[in-house]
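Propose amino acids for all 277 sites.
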């Protein structure tokens, strides 16, 4: 790319892209902070839910689920977040059996499984700005399937490992598995009138709270992934602008040198012609 006008157009184009990625990074930072605050503030509630589920489980009152599995897959409604959607969908593809019924949460999940016959319903818009109303709507739908078909429920989403790390996970939501809960030392519960009767009221609350927790975690991971992707894109744009600027200056210097050489050559030719006269 030695043409000066081509290089200038390329630099202008990259600068425009850099402005977009820089603005998106700023927005993602703001949304990421809010999502992380929501995630951190709600963790205690979800830990308590898991503690109660673990206590009921220890009493052996969790019934067996024998129907076709129901799998809730949570990804984002939008793209431009690196490998975030690809990673969770790849895990979902590996985990979902042929007879499973898929509940799609997020536009990308809905589009990914659009051609499958066992997609029951999709929930778009529940992840980008998560709220308990949306989670409750999903939970009511899933609980309806559970009551009708006695199906085990699995949820696949992206879990926040730390503020700078996240990973897709597959969790057996119901029946819950003992090893999915951390030990809750010092926490003892008494169930009245009995664990089995409490379980009937607890299951909808547990499913709704767990889905909301997964959505909040996924939203925090999405905004963190988008911030990282936009930061990387902005950095790459800066490096490309710097490289193109160097190329432009070299091309311009080469052009100037060429012009000077032509002027010197022409002057020498005219001088020789003058001497001959």
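Proposal:
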């Amino acid at each position: 790319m030695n043409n000066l006008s081509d290089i200038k157009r390329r630099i202008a184009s990259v600068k425009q892209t850099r402005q977009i990625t820089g603005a998106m990074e700023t927005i993602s930072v703001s949304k990421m902070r809010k999502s992380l605050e929501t995630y951190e503030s709600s963790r205690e509630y979800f830990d308590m839910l898991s503690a109660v589920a673990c206590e009921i489980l220890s009493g052996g009152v969790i019934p067996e689920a024998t129907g076709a599995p129901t799998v809730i897959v949570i990804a984002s409604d939008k793209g431009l977040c690196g490998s975030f959607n690809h990673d969770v969908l790849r895990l979902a593809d590996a985990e979902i059996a042929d007879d499973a019924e898929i509940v799609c949460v997020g536009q990308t999940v809905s589009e990914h499984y659009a051609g499958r016959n066992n997609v029951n319903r999709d929930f778009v818009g529940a992840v980008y700005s998560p709220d308990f109303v949306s989670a409750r709507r999903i939970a009511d739908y899933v609980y309806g399937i559970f009551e009708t078909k006695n199906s085990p429920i699995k949820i696949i989403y992206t879990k926040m490992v730390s503020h700078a790390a996240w990973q897709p996970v597959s969790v057996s939501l119901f029946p819950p598995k003992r090893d999915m809960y951390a030990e809750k030392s010092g926490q003892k519960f008494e169930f009245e009138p009995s664990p089995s009767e409490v379980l009937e009221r607890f299951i909808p609350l547990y499913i709704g709270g767990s889905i909301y927790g997964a959505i909040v975690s996924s939203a925090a991971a999405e905004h963190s992934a988008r911030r990282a992707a936009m930061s990387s894109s902005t950095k790459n744009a800066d490096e490309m602008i710097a490289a193109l600027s160097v190329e432009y200056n070299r091309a311009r210097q080469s052009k100037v040198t060429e012009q000077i050489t032509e002027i010197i050559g022409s002057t020498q030719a005219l001088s020789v012609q003058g001497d001959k006269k």
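The first strand starts at residue 70 and ends at 74. Confidence is low (pLDDT under 50) at residues 180-185.
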